[in-house]
Structure formats: structure tokens, C-alpha cells
């Protein structure tokens, strides 16, 4: 795959998706099969039998092992073959690759790179998770038919919301406000405040605001695969302190992007908020609204991917609004180049970047 970082935790699935039957999903263009053992632990293996390459997900889970559905070889959670029907000797080559997995925040995270580096402490920390007065909404997994960097760019691009999301989160007042992009230690942020404006449809429908509002959006990207949009809508005219923002409608909108192939991505979303807590009907409406919103992005970025495939191009004109998306993309490209350089034993990551730039020009 192009432009992917392997040494990172990606969401493989929501925890509830994986039970005691084989679960298959393609990640970074590799077939993965996962299952849950009797003690509740997860295991993830390459979904390819070491005998004749049959996907192990076509078999079944037997005594905490995966039994191939062709000739019955059994592999344990480490990928070692523990049983060959009809013979005692287990050939040394009868082993499949296993992947580190960890569960946190209701998700199963997988590490596709060097297993030695798979420290669960590196899993992204979710803001206000398990905090009294805040609710967590787990969205469905969406399948977006576009390279994940197109989504990374989309999520770092406030300018599209007015047009792509007219019926959901779009706000015409925002389109005239130029976003600002800054780089922090571990992420990039593009933000803007829209002051003294009508609230967008999603906030107007809540009935929480009678007059004009101040609204901010901070689009944060934590490479390589976590996006968080911090949104606050508050009555206009107040100071923008943390305490006042907490008194408004405040939410952290997470997306976890897991590359599937060069032209498709698993798109998981999660929403953490301080309003409508405990209101199941409201939450159901919110889930529908977000689902529609992100499918609106899918329509645009999938269509864009089809044109990119046809033309071999990504973009033909550059605007001021491209600053944030371009920086996010460059962060990934640099990380991917550094990994490739390390793997190839190059002198330095910078060396690999410059060699690739020369090769591409
Ligand atoms: S292909 Fe799996 S046991 Fe033969
Ligand atoms: Fe969008």
C-alpha cells in the first residue's frame, strides 16, 4: 500500500463485532482473521492457512484455536500450528503470522508493524471518556471507497462543510471565516470561530439557543489515523474560557481511519458530548444525523477517488484552504517514508524522503 504507517494502532473493529466465531477484515491490504478466546481475550492472525492458503475465516474456532475449513489444521492465538489431523509431526513451516491486538474504548486495536513496538500505552487517549456528565456514542463502521489520505484531508478541511453538509452540520456563515492551521507537538490543528451567527441546523433543532451563537471547530489530526473535531456552540457574547465552553454544547467527534486497500478505508466514528446525556431518543437521532453526515463525505471522496484513478492525478489547483489538509498529508508521507527508510536500512529518513521526491519529479 502507498503512504501508510505500519507501526501504529489501528481500529480493527468495535469490540462487540468480534465473538467466538472467525471475524475477517482486510487491514493495510492484508487479510486478518480475529476471534475471542474463552477467557475473553482476542487473537488476530493472518487470514491465510499455512498449508494451501485457504482463508482461516472459512473455518471455525475450536478450543481457542482456529481450525482451517479445508484439512483441519489448528492454529493457536500465536499462530503456531498445534494439530495436524492424521499425523503427529507438525512441519516447522506450519505457522501463520499473528498480530498484537488490544481492547480499549470499546474497540479492538491492531498493530500491523513490528510486534516489538506494540505498546498499548500508545493507543490514542479519548477525551472525556468515562467522565460524569458526558456520554459516548459509538457509530457504525462505514466503508469509504477512497484512499484514507483523501479522508485525512477531508477531516482537516472545514471549508467543505458548508457545501457538502448543507442539510446537516453546514453553516453558510462559516464559509466566509478563514480557518487557521497550526502544528502542535503530536498533531496538527485547523480551527475557526464563527461569531454572532445563527446556529447550524443541528444545534437549532436542539432548541438550546434562542439567539445568536459563537461556534468553534478545532479539526485535529493525530497521525497516522485519529481525527478529532472539537465543537462548541455557546450563546454569543461570552468569553471563550474552558468553563464557559463546558457550559455550552460541547463535543469531541472522533474518527478512526483504518486503511483497507489503496482505494478503500474502514471509517469508524465515535462521539463524546456533554448534552442530551441519558436521552436515548436524542442519541438515536444524533446517530442517524452523523451517519448521514459522514456518508455525505463518502459520496464526495469516493467519487473523487474514481476520477483520481482515471487521471492519475490528485489535484490540479491549490487554494488557501488546502494548507491544513496538505500539512496533514505531508505528516503521513514523512512517517511512511521514515518507516520505509528504516526497513531499507537507508542512512536517514530525510534521505529517503529526498530520494523519493527526486524519483517522483
Ligand atoms: S488448506 Fe488449511 S489445512 Fe489445508
Ligand atoms: Fe465532512
TrEMBL record:
It is an enzyme of class 1 (oxidoreductase). CDD domains: RHO_alpha_C_DMO-like (cd08878). Gene3D superfamilies: Naphthalene 1,2-dioxygenase Alpha Subunit, Chain A, domain 1 (3.90.380.10), Rieske [2Fe-2S] iron-sulphur domain (2.102.10.10). Its EC number is 1.14.14.-. Residues 9-110 form the Rieske domain. This is Toluene-4-sulfonate monooxygenase system iron-sulfur subunit TsaM1. The lineage of its organism: Bacteria, Pseudomonadati, Pseudomonadota, Betaproteobacteria, Burkholderiales. It comes from Pigmentiphaga humi. Pfam families: Rieske (PF00355), VanA_C (PF19112). Keywords: 2Fe-2S, Iron, Iron-sulfur, Metal-binding, Monooxygenase, Oxidoreductase. One of its GO terms (molecular function) is monooxygenase activity.
